[in-house]
Amino acid sequence: MARETSLFSGRPSELVGRQVASYRIEQEIGRGGMAVVYRARDLRLDRTVALKLLAPELARNDTFRNRFSHESRVAAAIDHPHIVPVFEAGETDGVLYIAMRYVAGSDLRHLLDRQGPLALPTALRIAAQVASALDAAHEHGLVHRDVKPGNILVARGTDSDHPEHTYLTDFGLTKKSLSLTGFTTVGQFVGTLDYVAPEQISGRPVDGRCDVYGFACVVHETLTGHPPFRRDDDMALLWAHQYDEPPAISRSRPGLPTGLDDVFARALAKTPADRHDSCLSFVAALRSAATGDHGPSAAAARVAYAEAAVRVAQAEETRPKPPPHWARPVVRER
Ligand SMILES: Nc1ncnc2c1ncn2[C@@H]1O[C@H](COP(=O)(O)OP(=O)(O)OP(=O)(O)O)[C@@H](O)[C@H]1O
Ligand SMILES: [Mg+2]
Questions:
Q1: What domains sit in the chain, N to C, each tagged with a CATH number?
Q2: What does pTM read for this prediction?
Q3: In a mutational test of the pocket of ligand 1, which residue from 107, 109, 166, 189 has the highest number of ligand atoms less than 8 Å from its CB?
């Protein structure tokens, strides 16, 4: 136990200079709710990597552990320009680790905190890259489940036409799929609920369309500085994802084309079947709404949206009343 603790929760400087598996730790890059990420040296290939050490209790959770080994294997098999390449995933001294490409730059969370909302063309460029990564993952049968700004790494691009190059990371590494009560069984917070799809909350099966929802929340934030739903507490936020209509984005940031409203309304539909069927088609719809191009596919999208609106209205009639405060949804996926 002492060894586990020293690997994960020791002071950052304690691990610097030490060897973990076949990596020598050089510097702490950052830490999230369930992992610490270091810049490290791969001693076998003599190259710099990002080494992610996951919190020890995750290694003791069989559901997480099985998904970790399955999904890191699938993620490692996807060769895509916008997915962080995974070099190795394993376990040492009771701690799960992932070695991956070190991405020099920032992540979208830091970028938004520093710069505020991005200009529409920049947001659309970044969105298109992330969308292509998500769609590629879905084609491999992999659902990300935790699309959020912190999992989108932004590096310098190749030239002025491509000022940034983004990478999606952390496939299947979310504790949200283990518990959405806000806390895991060992009392650790699961992280932000700003981007979680209604079907994840209610414990229904998830597929790529849950990432369409999370991704739409992220794009909303890159354009306005905040996700579509903002509530005072987690229960109200979970409720809003499931039942509240998202506010029109053009009202959140004056100057945005009003055509974007319908596109977000569709991507954020409560029922997965009512959303765009891929992340790239969501971005294509954003592009045409932004440029005022209302060609045949945009017309078809409007018809589909109108149909979806009717279904939402029908569902609204049978909508249950909000649960009392104590009735917290507990979600456990197999
Ligand atoms: N491959 C990488 N190269 C460079 N930096 C990385 C890499 N992967 C993650 N990071 C950075 O490491 C930090 C911690 O990442 P981590 O995934 O642990 O936390 P998070 O995604 O911000 O939060 P959460 O715990 O909720 O997932 C982030 O600032 C991220 O930008
Ligand atoms: Mg992360």
A1: 16-99 (3.30.200.20), 104-289 (1.10.510.10)
A2: 0.82
A3: 107
